[in-house]
Amino acid sequence: MQDSNPTEQRRLRGFAAMSPEKKKEIAGMGGRAAHAAGRAHQFSTEEARAAGKKRHQRPDTASQ
Known about the structure:
Blueprint: H1 20-37, H2 45-55
């Protein structure tokens, strides 16, 4: 059984302990691997336009 001291602070582990630059580097490696394997989605111009339109629509006022 471990002794736990309530005044002792918890240490960050894993991704929480990494610098933002290191996390970005690792995420980029995953993105490149997905594209290389053909599993990544690439938006067409029409899909990107529709997503942007949907994102900027006003909320429906009838539901309030």
